[in-house]
Amino acid sequence: MIDCHTHRYPVEVYSNPQIFAKKHKEKHWLEIVAPSNGKSIQGWASRDQMIGAMDKASVKKAVLLSWYWENPETSILQNEWYASWLKEDSNRFYAFASIHPSLKKPLDELKKCIDLGFVGIGETHPHVQKFSMKDPVWLECVKFASENGLPINFHVTEPVGHDYPGRIPTPFEDFLWLACEFPELKIILAHAGGLFPFYELNPKVKKKLNNVFYDLSACPLLYEGSLYRKLIEVVGPEKILWGTDYPLRIFPKFQKDPDFLTFKNFVEQEAKLNDSESRAIFGENFLSLLPC
Questions:
Q1: For the chain, percent of residues with pLDDT exceeding 70
Q2: DSSP letters of 50-98?
Q3: Residues 78, 28: Cα–Cα separation, whole Å
Q4: pLDDT band at residue 292, thresholds of 50, 70 and 90?
Q5: Do residues 146 and 110 touch, judged by C-beta distance below 8 A?
Q6: What is the DSSP letter of 153?
Q7: CB 3.0 to 4.6 Å from 193: which of 128, 140, 189, 281, for a disulfide?
Q8: What pLDDT does residue 37 have?
């Protein structure tokens, strides 16, 4: 079993997020993990706590997704954290690189990360990071990813819904354009793609999204449990990836500490998965996206 969508931070970050955010000019990140209204659903976990929670849920490996930092220099810092943790626990984690087009040489940073064992890019959010999907520097990295089989994970915001800290729109047209421009690129749209997968009911859209996949991270915060079976019916189990957004507390009404097991059981029960669907969604689909 593989969780395709997690985040991890060193203790000096989560012990005082305000100090870290102020030092590195990460206002958006702070508003999400420690909102000004004081009602945070963000959890935190040390290495041992995370691996312990993985073991309890029989999660073999977790994908460490980078954050969509506003400050390019924070991207480099997170890549350094992940490179160190990959070296320490390569049998338990995959890592995706944080790439910001405003870096001096973002493509060189990406290549360095790949040499260190990273297997993808993201989580990426152009509208928070203040760049266009058509930015030529960004597209150099996209082209490299496409040519080398690297998946890119994008944060996707549902276009209609309740307001919450850090909610920034992500136009579906951006992802459709990218999928058409780079048909070989492996695109992962997080958070059930903001319900974008239901546009695959349009045959003209569906044929453009052959290489677009959808992860389930944080879905309990947004949608009812019937979502998972409906997604399977629309796009097929082969395009769905299980991810939690750990250490986010995605069941905040009763989840005191973040875990993997609760959402695993919830998806299994709500979707009534058969063995084949379970194998695909809980690991095989993600493994098929890894570069050779």
A1: 100
A2: HHHHHHHTT--EEEEPPP--SSHHHHHHHHHHHHHHHHH-TTTEEEEE-
A3: 16
A4: confident
A5: no
A6: E
A7: 189
A8: 80
The neighbour count for residue 35, using CB atoms within 10 Å, is: 15
d(CA 190, CA 49): 24
List the domain boundaries for the chain: 2-289
For strand 61-64 and strand 212-215, is the pairing parallel, antiparallel, or unpaired? unpaired
Burial class of residue 231 (count of CB atoms within 10 Å of its CB; 0-12, 13-18, 19+): buried
Could you identify the residue written with the tokens 């909610």?
167
Q: Are 144 and 112 in contact (CB under 8 A)?
A: no
For the chain, the first-to-last Cα distance in angstroms comes to: 20
Contact between 174 and 155 under an 8 Å Cβ cutoff? The reply is no
Model confidence, pTM: 0.98
Arithmetic mean of pLDDT, 93-116: 98
Percent of the chain with pLDDT over 90: 96
Which CATH fold would you assign to the domain 2-289? TIM Barrel (3.20.20)
Written as six digits, the tokens of 227 are 């979502």
